[in-house]
Design a protein that fits this description.
single chain; alpha+beta; 4-stranded antiparallel beta sheet; 36 strands; disordered N terminus
């Protein structure tokens, strides 16, 4: 059987029909007083996001009204656009509305009450994120991003139901995670300034909730570190910090602060062994929650693999036997049952909102999508974790996930040495994850092997691994992807003549650099990828405006390095065919980046534009079309 026949003559269970069905996107799961809450994006409702609740009796209902769209554009990537509390009168949800702007309150899914509008009377346009209810007042704390006359500023503000806004913190370039103490006495938050990102250097601050109080910086000032995700357990304040501790690897791990007579004293917890925390690309992330009795529950990453951890003051950290695969830290239900709620994201089942105990059983009661009838686990490829020794001055080993082709009855037959698709994640401060993904199963069910590389610079492996890409973007990430491919070729697990590489956003730069620097790949796909680093600095949004200072070189002093690393500077080195897929409404990496390079390239280059898509494809028909184009592109190359 020829290569083209083995990849196209039979059907795969990951069909276009499956991918365009109304698949929900589930996120931000939390629990309170027996209720479970989550955010649900619905393609069948024009992609709007809804806060959904599961009552203690098991009944699920929408808690934000029809026509609302819970979301925010703060930092472009958003997140944390809602908060919820259970009162004697029902469930109250405060949220930012993506379509209408402003902040709104809905009581038990009834029509919303506007707290404040997006456009203020003075002409300033404001967006709100990271909302958090005050403990005992009709008031919410949040991040306010203000746009006026081409300038952006950020503050921590409180908003009352009458629409009154009060600024509690300003002056820093960026803010996140305003969290009031349960007794209403204090407010904590994190902040940072350009050219830093929230995973490089931030500061943790706290202030008394009186109009005359001055903020106190608790962490990140004496020693530069990344501190984030503050939360309270009674009067004790916790945060996740990667501060230097002698004899320990620098990993995000909880640190505690206790207040006495106006002084805040840090209390170091023992190391957890894994990394507790995620890079703060979006608001509202929670990696650790308090338990009764002074304990903590956390989602930790061990060599990039998620595990559930419990901390007890008397005995330290323990890895729990847990039936699920938590995408977020599980939240206690607070109903005396000992159950927790979380977003379950295993490698062989669709994501689902789940309920259960620390040792099971698990009730996966709200699935993102349904596996087609008849599909078995043999049809689903699951990852092998690779650790590959690298011989340079950076940390070793290199980590990657390898998916052999699936061999079920609902997959195309795989060859003994299959073609390989290398996936380069974005960020580049991202991470290759183990959860079931269409972008992987599309290929593995069609006879391809997939290699998802956690090149150095990825998160989940500690600060040293993350910082290994500093000044090396476009160099070390390329070397790591190539090293992982050579490792598989040496093992005889993939066909060296049919290796292709695909990457999105920052990963698109890696793809183009790999095609120029190596002959391992016969083709590549750049999905809304970077081609001109100088143009990126000029055109990108405020949150990432100085991101490349660390990854490439300080700007503009290092302009020569930017030019040397940009694919637009050496189009003649890219001789393999490239498929460019880009959104016409992309604000992060403008379409002009792809257009400029395509105009300079020779040979078999293709550019397809999705006019209404931004940075990342979200419409199901666009996702399907892009994958079908990419599959046809590789088949054409293999046959060529």
């Amino acid at each position: 059987m020829s290569s083209s026949q083995s990849l196209s003559d039979r059907t795969s269970w990951v069909s276009p029909a499956l991918m365009v069905q109304k698949n929900r996107a589930l996120s931000e799961v939390r629990a309170q007083k027996g209720w479970v809450f989550w955010l649900e994006r619905r393609p069948d409702e024009a992609g709007r996001s809804v806060v959904v609740g599961r009552a203690p009796d098991g009944h699920c209902q929408d808690l934000t009204p029809q026509g609302s769209d819970v979301g925010t554009s703060v930092h472009v990537y958003g997140g944390g656009a809602w908060d919820v509390r259970v009162t004697a009168h029902g469930v109250e949800v405060v949220y930012s509305d993506r379509r209408q702007g402003g902040v709104w309150l809905s009581r038990h899914g009834q029509p919303s009450i506007a707290w404040c509008a997006a456009t203020h009377s003075d002409g300033h346009v404001c967006h709100y994120a990271d909302l958090c209810f005050a403990p005992s007042e009709m008031m919410v704390f949040c991040v306010r991003e203000t746009h006026h006359e081409g300038q952006e500023t950020a503050q921590i503000v409180s908003i009352t139901e009458q629409g009154d806004e009060h600024v509690w913190a300003e002056g820093a370039d960026f803010y996140a995670a305003p969290r009031p103490s349960p007794n209403g006495r204090f407010l904590a938050w994190m902040m940072w300034d350009n050219p830093h990102m929230p995973w490089t250097e931030t500061r943790l601050a706290v202030t008394a909730l009186t109009r005359s109080a001055s903020p106190i910086v608790l962490e990140g000032e004496a020693e530069p570190c990344s501190v984030m995700e503050p939360f309270w357990d009674g009067t004790r304040l916790y945060a996740l910090s990667d501060r230097t501790v002698e004899g320990q690897e620098r990993l995000w791990t909880p640190i505690a602060f206790d207040e006495a007579q106006g002084r805040w004293e840090p209390a170091l917890l023992p190391p957890a062994g894994g990394e507790i925390g995620l890079p703060a690309w979006v608001f509202g992330q929670r990696s650790c929650v308090p338990l009764e009795g002074g304990g903590l529950l956390a989602r930790g990453l061990y060599h990039g693999v998620a595990k559930l951890l419990r901390y007890e003051p008397e005995s330290g950290w323990h890895v729990l036997a847990f039936e699920g695969t938590p995408e977020n830290v599980p939240f206690p239900l607070e109903d005396g049952s000992g159950r927790v709620a979380w977003l379950d994201a295993p490698a062989d089942q669709p994501p689902a909102v789940a309920l259960g105990g620390f040792e099971g059983p698990t009730d996966r009661f709200r699935l993102a999508w349904q596996v087609p009838e008849g599909v078995t686990k043999e049809d689903i490829a699951t990852p092998e974790t690779l650790q590959i020794d690298v011989d340079d001055d950076g940390p070793s080993p290199l980590y990657a996930l390898f998916y052999p082709p699936a061999h079920g009855a609902h997959c195309l037959p795989a060859e003994e040495t299959p073609p390989l698709v290398v996936i380069v994640h974005g960020g580049p401060t991202g991470q290759a994850r183990t959860d079931l993904s269409f972008k992987v199963q599309w290929w593995t069910s069609r006879g391809f092997a997939v290699l998802d590389v956690n090149y150095r610079g990825s998160t989940g492996f500690g600060r040293a691994y993350r910082e290994a890409l500093d000044g090396q973007w476009g160099v070390r990430d390329v070397c790591d992807c190539c090293a992982a491919v050579r490792y598989l070729i040496a093992q005889g697990r993939v066909d060296p003549a049919r290796c292709v590489i695909r990457g999105s956003s920052a990963g698109g730069l890696t793809v183009l650099s790999a095609l120029a620097q190596s002959d391992l790949f016969v083709a590549g796909t750049s999905l809304y990828g970077v081609t001109d680093l100088r143009g990126l600095v000029a055109d990108t949004h405020r949150f990432e405006a100085r991101y490349t200072d660390r990854l490439i070189a300080p700007w503009p002093e290092g302009e020569a390095v930017y030019r040397a690393r940009s694919p637009l500077s050496w189009p003649e080195k890219i001789t393999a065919p490239v498929l460019f897929l880009h959104g016409g409404a992309d604000q992060v990496v403008p379409l002009s980046q792809a257009e400029a390079l395509v105009a300079q390239l020779a040979g078999e280059q293709q550019l397809h534009i999705y006019p209404h898509e931004g940075h990342g494809f979200r419409a199901p028909d666009v996702i399907v079309d892009s994958l079908q184009r990419e599959l046809a592109f590789y088949q054409q190359v293999f046959e060529g």
